[in-house]
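Extended Data, panel c. Modelled sequence:
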Amino acid sequence: MSWDRNQMAARAAEELEDGMYVNLGIGIPTLVANYVGEKDITLQSENGMLGMGPFPFEGEEDPDLINAGKQTITELRRTSYFDSAQSFGMIRGGKIAAAILGAMEVAENGDLANWMIPGKLVKGMGGAMDLVAGVGRVIVVMDHTNKHGESKLLRECTLPLTGKGVVDRIITNLGVLDVVDDGLRIVECADGVSEQALRDATEATIV
């Protein structure tokens, strides 16, 4: 047993509190918009939208309303639009309380690698580098292991870094871990996952 993508997104939504301005990265983090519920959360997309709603129902898509991952989304009554300069001004100016991002690798000291695999075609880092440097809290949502069963929570990242020592909390299909002094601390195990199973799947030091 473990959490699926939607359960991981729902768990990430539990991290959010009323009044927060939050940026959602591409991949699993975009699903968080579906689980905000009645909380007063304002979601920001770095392509120029403040106040994103959940994904539209089939047949109600508006091709002009997209998130940073180019998925169609919905607007709210309070939604506002702006250019990239103003969007990154919000991010770099510390106006965004948290970012929920995907990752390829996270190191035990909070280093984050989430933008490229050498040798593979990549469009660029996007807003991730600015986000990890400018927001108040960085929450990573990712699979615990790769398709070969190898841990993605490492002692040291092997891929090019997006940011050094920037990750605060990691939510995977196996559980929730915090970056603390000297390693990672288990906060919660996913449904049906034992603490030993989580430890066995983790290369990083667990304290």
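The mean pLDDT is 93. This feature is highlighted in the accompanying rendering.
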